[in-house]
Amino acid sequence: SDAIRLTAPAQRLAIDGFTFDLNRVAGSLSYRLDSGDLGRVAPLLTQGAPRNPSNEPPPPFWLPTAGQGVVAGDLAIDRANYVTHMSLDLQNAAAPITSGPVDVARGTLTLRPTSVDDLRLALSKGAAALTVAGRVPLAGTGKARASAPMALTVEARAWPAAGIAAFLLPPDVAAAWPMTGLVTGRLDLGG
């Protein structure tokens, strides 16, 4: 069968259309994660990342530490190349960029080894809203920086400044200069 179902406390993962050719090292699948506790899934997303327990860095600005909802999409792999189209529909999600739980986090993106494309993420918390849209190139293996320019738009309405700082600033700078207050406006990033 090409269908796989995995369950764990507060988690249901459905994988459909799973195919993989060992000779070509290529395959594809569709996935849907229904999570009642995103905080339990988050460590899996950073599995294999370098760690130093005595000086643990803060989690990535995007990594959910709490919440519920659905993450769904498709994945195609061809040797070292891959592409996944992903959609998110989360409630009560918390991550460094959210400065506490948000009511709703919805969006879509396409992830490749060299970029995050078609990014559209909308967060809302009461009357506050934050939207991030655009393209973020990623550094290739063994490279210090991406070879293509970034094109990103951030729009905020009464969003906590600390969350914006977690997104825009390196973690050590954001920690050294804690920001307070609310941000409203638009920021176009490129280059």
Structure description:
The protein is mainly beta and 191 residues long. The protein is built from three helices and ten strands, in the order βββαββββββααβ. It has helices spanning 38-45, 161-168, 171-176, and strands at 4-8, 11-21, 26-35, 66-78, 81-94, 104-112, 115-125, 128-137, 151-160, 182-190. Strands 1-2-3-4-5-6-7-8-9-10 form a ten-stranded antiparallel beta sheet. A hairpin with a 2-residue loop joins strand 1 and strand 2 (11-21). The radius of gyration is 18 Å and the shape is globular. The mean pLDDT is 88.
What is the strand tally?
10
Please compute the radius of gyration using only Cα atoms: 18 Å
* pLDDT < 50 stretches: none
N-to-C CA distance: 46 Å
Mean pLDDT: 88
Content-based structural category: mainly beta
Tally of contiguous helical segments:
3
Descriptive key words:
mainly beta, 191 residues, 10 strands, ten-stranded antiparallel β-sheet
Short structural summary:
The protein is mostly beta strands.
Strand-helix topology:
Layout: E1 4-8, E2 11-21, E3 26-35, H1 38-45, E4 66-78, E5 81-94, E6 104-112, E7 115-125, E8 128-137, E9 151-160, H2 161-168, H3 171-176, E10 182-190
Antiparallel strand pairs: 1-2, 2-3, 3-4, 4-5, 5-6, 6-7, 7-8, 8-9, 9-10
